[in-house]
Each structure stands twice: as C-alpha cells, then as structure tokens.
C-alpha cells in the first residue's frame, strides 16, 4: 500500500536524523512524508493518482526506480510542505515512475509494472531516448499522439555532447 511505503520512507528519514542530529531537514522530511501518507489514506486524494502509482509499488520498500526513490527521499527536505503540495507531488511521482519503468525496459528489455504500451516497450528495447517531457504529457495524450512522439524521438537521435574539436 502506498501509504505504508511513504511511512517507511519517513522512518528511514528519522534514522538519518539520528546519524545527523544537527540537520533539521531530516525531521522536516519525515513529517512531510507522514503527512503525505495521511493524505493518501484520506478522502481528498485523487484515485487516479493512486491507480497510476499502484503498478509501480513492488512492496512496502520500493516504488518506481531511481528517479522516484530520489524524489521521495528529498520530499520536504528544502521547503516547508503543506497539504496543498501533496496532490502535485503524487502527479510528479506518476511521471517519475513511468520514466523509471521506461528506463528499466531500456536496460532490461522488460517492464515489470506493465504500464508501457507495446510501441513504448519496443522503443525502449531499441534504445530510443525519451525525454522527461514525454512522460509529463503521457497521461493526457492519445495513443496516436504518443506513438507519433515516440517515432519522432526514434528519428532524431541525440547528438553526443562531448568537447568540440577546435581546428
């Protein structure tokens, strides 16, 4: 359950606080994560946000991949979080989970979350780089729009960004 995962991350933050007692950010983050868990269990949460995250929750300790884990671990660290932030953060987690699923498919040739559509999985297997923006629009775009976007990225490989030759 998503709220259990968030509470486990809050406990992890509290353990960090014991190692770094002079850093108040750990307690702020733990409190923000607990508040987010309460929000997830409450009546105001968007069921579509919960449904979007569900396939990426493997167990009480794992949601998404590296990007998702990093975002959760930093929630509330640098800013004061209010309940107004929670809905936006759940949407952000949806984007990151889907991005992580795509990156996992690029690396391993499979999508354990089963959230990628066939043309996305094929593009991942072919090593096509999709930008974060693709996953930001993914939820509201049609399948045709997404397929055209993927084909556009397939046709436009990224150029290497190494040092330029001076001659």
Give a written overview of the molecule.
The model has no long low-confidence stretch (mean pLDDT 90). Helix 1 (2-19) runs antiparallel to helix 2 (25-41) and helix 4 (66-74) runs antiparallel to helix 5 (83-108). Strand 1 and strand 2 (62-63) form a beta hairpin. The protein is elongated. The longest helix is centred in the middle third of the chain and has 26 residues, at 83-108. With 167 residues, it is an all-alpha fold. The protein has helices at residues 2-19, 25-41, 47-53, 66-74, 83-108, 118-125, 132-137, 143-155; strands at residues 57-59, 62-63. It has one domain. A two-stranded antiparallel ribbon has the order 1-2. It contains 8 helices and 2 strands, in the order αααββααααα.
Short overview:
This protein is an all-alpha fold and 167 residues long. It has helices at 2-19, 25-41, 47-53, 66-74, 83-108, 118-125, 132-137, 143-155, and strands at 57-59, 62-63. The termini are far apart.
List keywords for this structure.
two-stranded antiparallel ribbon, 62% helix, mainly alpha, 167 residues, elongated
Write the layout of secondary structure elements.
Layout: H1 2-19, H2 25-41, H3 47-53, E1 57-59, E2 62-63, H4 66-74, H5 83-108, H6 118-125, H7 132-137, H8 143-155
Helix pairs in contact: 1-2, 3-5, 4-5, 5-6
């Amino acid at each position: 359950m998503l709220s259990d995962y968030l509470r486990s991350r809050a406990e992890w933050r509290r353990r960090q606080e014991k190692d770094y007692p002079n850093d108040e950010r750990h307690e702020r983050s733990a409190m923000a994560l607990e508040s987010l868990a309460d929000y997830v269990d409450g009546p105001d949460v968007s069921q579509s946000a919960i449904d979007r995250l569900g396939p990426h929750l493997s167990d009480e300790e794992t949601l998404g991949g590296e990007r998702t884990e990093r975002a959760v671990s930093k929630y509330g660290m640098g800013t004061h979080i209010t309940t107004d932030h929670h809905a936006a953060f759940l949407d952000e987690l949806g984007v990151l989970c889907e991005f992580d699923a795509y990156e996992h498919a690029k690396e391993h040739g499979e999508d354990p979350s089963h959230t990628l559509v066939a043309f996305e999985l094929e593009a991942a297997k072919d090593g096509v780089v999709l930008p974060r923006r693709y996953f930001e629009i993914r939820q509201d775009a049609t399948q045709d729009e997404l397929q055209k976007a993927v084909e556009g990225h397939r046709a436009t490989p990224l150029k290497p960004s190494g040092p330029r030759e001076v001659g």
